[in-house]
Design goal:
The complex is a heterodimer. Chain A is α+β, with helices and mostly antiparallel strands. Chain A contains 13 helices and ten strands. In chain A, strands 2-3-8-5-7-6 form a six-stranded mixed β-barrel. The longest helix of chain A is centred in the C-terminal third of the chain and has 45 residues. Chain B is α/β, with parallel strands linked by helices. In chain B, the strands form two sheets. A six-stranded mixed β-sheet of chain B has the order 6-7-8-3-9-10. The two termini of chain B are 15 Å apart. The chains are: A alpha+beta, B alpha/beta. At the A-B interface, helix 1, helix 10, helix 11 and helix 13 of A face helix 2 and helix 3 of B.
Chain lengths: 426, 221
Amino acid sequence: MRFLDILGLARDNLARTKLRTALTATGIAIGTAAVITLLAFGNGIQALAVGQAATFSAVTSVVVGPGKAGGGGAGHPITPASVDQFRGLAHVNHTVVTLSTPPVKITVDGASAVAPGAARTPIGDSATLVAGSGAGTADTDGLLVPQSMVSKFGGSAGSLVGKPATLTIGAGVCCNDPRGGIVYAGPQRTFPAHVAGVYDDTGANAPRDGSVSNLVMAAPLGAQLDGTASSTTADAYLNDVGYESVVVQTDDARATAAVASSIKSLGFQAASRADLLARIDLFFNIIRAGLGMIGGIALVVAAIGIANTLVMTVLERTREIGIMKALGAEPGAVRMIFLVETALVGLIGGLLGLALSALAGVVGNVVFIRIVQSQNPDFPFTNVFVMTPVLVAFGVALAIVVSLLGGALPSRRAVRLQPLDALRYE
Amino acid sequence: MALENVSRHYGRGDFEVAAVEAVNLEVGEGEFVAIMGPSGSGKSTLLNLVGALDRPTSGRVLAAGRDISALGAKDAARYRRREVGFIFQSFNLLPRFNVLENIAMPLVFEGTAPAERRRRAEALVERFGLTERARHKPATLSGGEKQRVAIARALVNEPRVLLADEPTGNLDSRNAELVIETLVNLNHLQGQTILLITHETEVAEAAGRTVRMRDGSIVEG
């Protein structure tokens, strides 16, 4: 039997029982709409949550450390050339290099203070400035002074900004570094610098372990200090020992994991919290599956409706099926006629359900944004019901599959009817 | 076509009934055979066995060069579609389809192209004087017209054998004569093999050979 003839027969059968077809399809439509609307809602809140999470710097940054020494070697230092390599990776838009330095004495206008030293470029990164601006932090000899140190120089934080300063390291500067870092007890050496800003080290920004706040200097200056402490030059120090760590920022949270693994393959240690995003994603996938199952209950009810309708239809058409079989319709053809019929009902129901779901989504999105913006007028317009092409295709496919499942048993009855019994049926 | 020691029993154990018991029958090509007998003598069962609508409990039914009693549901359907034309007492037309569509129905199951189906159905419509009725549904036809449609449908696949189960049973005498005349013509002019059940002697006289059945067995012919 030709498929077009099967399709024609199925269509005629449905057209003959319009009300019944409409009611059965409505059941499927409601079931499909329930599943798709809930899944679209799941999509929306997932995108919302992941989108929010993706803006956290934790999920966009990779912390890179020197490669581990293998077989007694010197390890794999993070040299300025390595940093250039990181910058060349796709989706990397920003790097922060850090060094630790020996304890330093800072002298401004004749007054001085001692602090552990740290170097960072850009110097202002992840600091909360109370004086000075980001502009000065780009200088190669800039300093960020902790707010707790300002009193030692007299005057205010603001008056300190822009002033020349002198850094001193060497014997007599300080006994020991509380962090147990680089110690330099050689002859005293001084380095010219200037105060670029004052950073907040009070309250929530205070050092966590109660230690003394660092004097933060630009990385080139820090390299000079470290080079001197190692009896070499700044360049040689960076090429042999390298930066202590580099924070590599990506422009897309979803690219973070790939950037981290690229850096690892270059021979460095790289840690990221990109898995956080994956976990949030997983969490919402589970929620979505739960929502889909709740909607699925309606669809199961609809499938039972289809089965019920089709049992009646087979009963009504028993004699017709008998005649068709007597005239030579093969069991497969009879099965196809019924299955195509149910698939058509599923298709109609599925499309109807998608239309319902789309309508519910549009209304839902407007209501949602009204409610949210009434609490927070700055909240950007966001869809919480998100229909994707995949979801649309899934909805139609689901409606058809569920209909076919509902139609499977009744079709079997039609297929198994003995032509003689069916012909005798009144 | 031959039936070899064919039996068909219904039910089981103490309730077992032999509708047909150890029947041997041979029908040559081009023969017109009338099967007569009282109700319950097994005539219809015999016809259904030949038409592969039923399977014998034992024995072989040889038709179209093979044992059709062993065919599966799919092959039996194909055999009915290609080798057999059925004419029923109650016509068994499909009420939803018009005359042309009813006649072409076996070709639909065969997978024949629509244009060819139409050509063959229209030729039969004309031959049986149904041109005016071609687009009518069976419910609007008279008994005689219905049976002519049924005969046309039975012929559309050019079957090896026509099986007619009391085709005149629901017709008035004038229409009954017409149907018998049609069958006789088919047999004489085209050599169509026909197996016909009847309990009217006049109808049986039109056939070349009469087989009489009683209690599931052939008693004459």
